[in-house]
Amino acid sequence: MKKFLIPVILSFLITSSVALASSPLKVVYPPTNHQTSAEKIFFIGTASPNGQVLINGKPITRSRSGHFAPSFPLQLGENIFTITHQGQTLQIKVTRVSNQPEIPQGLAFAKGSLTPTSDIARLPGELVCFSAVASPNASVSVKLANQTVALLPQQQAQLPNNLAALTGQNQPTNQSSVGTYQGCTTLLQPGSSVNGQVVLDAGKEIELGQPQFQLILNGKTITQPGTGKITILSPAQLPVAEVVADAGVARTGPSTDFSRLTPLPKGTRATVTGKEGEWFRLDYGAWINSKETRILPGAIPPRTIIRSVGYRRVPGATEMRFPLQTPVPVSVEQGEKTFTLTLYNTTAQTDIIRLDDDSLISRLDWQQVNSGEVKYTFNLKKAQQWGYKLRYDGTTLVLALRHAPVIKQNRQKPLSGIKILLDPGHGGKESGASGPTGYLEKDVNLAVSKLLRDELLKLGANVVMTREDDRDVSLPERQAIINREEPAISVSIHYNSLPDNGDAENTKGVGTFWYNSQAQSLAVFMHNYLVNKLGRPSYGVFWNNLALTRPATAPSVLLELGFMSNPNEFEWVTDTQEQKKLAKALAEGITEWFKSVK
Fold it and tell me: Of 10, 254, 387, 488, which residue is most buried, by most CB within 10 angstroms?
């Protein structure tokens, strides 16, 4: 896995040099020109096993081959580290910056602290909130059209970012929120007064303009405009957006920081009920980047009825067809022996559904959950699900539920007839993590993937690789290969590293990652098999929103087989004999998993 880093400023200065030894002192991390807000930093490197390596005069622990990865605390500002070994010296400067907003001294707002930071549009009656950072004991307010909103000091727990789950440090902290001011107001309803005039026309958008932030401190006042304009949308003239991307990325909020929801098939239409920057809020609650849509001039809010539901068998899948009047948003939920499809902006007029005795589905139930929302629950005959695809064929929603792979009876080749996709992580310019010697993750990913491919071929599998040499293959390209090849399973091979505040010296082991429920069984099984079969440490099993765990076409997992950053485990990672044992264990684990879900 590519190293997760919080920004670090770091400059290297070789202050002295000696004649080259067989293994000169080397530090591969941190890289040059970095900065960090972490409370500590680790140094990954190597030197000849003879003699001691000192950092600021302190001896550090090294592996048998001389590798090291100790962590040291950081003070705010510049931190100087001197690393020495047998007459060689490296001097490294690391600057730690605060992750708290800088409180201005005097009559001023903190730079970039006024929110909203972009243009927003909301429906009448919705809540809009503002925030600013300024000196404590100030009086802060916002004027918007004819309203004045007081912003008051607020105290909130600070949440770490998602990467904190990888180091076990994901607890909130009670860091000071001194200087943070927040306040909210409800947007005007039609008929309210704006700038002294009554708004009677509910069919027009109302431009409220930029909020004006006012700061009063020690009897002095300043006013500063916000960076975003605020608009009240007209409920009678809301725009309709159509998804033009193959799979529109629906999210819980208006930025990539927010969680993903079920992707929207190309052609999906929905009413836009809010805007924030380049993001649209759709009528069923999700947000989507406007670049993945087009506005349909003159379109009315998409609504549909549904009557009969169609059914047919196609090679390798059961296909359900939902004829609609217009393509509407959908969501999917996989459960224990259930697959649930929800159609939004839909009203049922259903009297007949055909579903023959199917190898996959035991029964289909449906329910009008509320006005405009219909839920279809497929009760499945077996717990393991093998992937699905969603698309619109005109205005008909097509759901293909994949069947279990047909395994040919062959004791010598138990994977006969099974297609397995292997994805050697990174490649080309994407090097991934680096070990103490500078050996790159992309290279060991490929080496182990090739060994695994050979083992799987011996067992009769049909193996597809996303790359077989050192080349660039983008994440969308890898996802497209999975969707095109439709393997029984997809396995992405990686090796791990840590964020700056991780414990690189002591963190090690096998980690497995999954996203869709259909992949959880494979991730858990492979984790347990490798830990028990090879006696490897456990790093854990993670639900994780990764590009190579997201494909829904097949159970897709990502395996982190060890830590490039751990000095001792790195020696195991790069041992060619251990790589062969690992590849054999991986192939055996995959075989046993298929037997367990047969």
Answer: 387
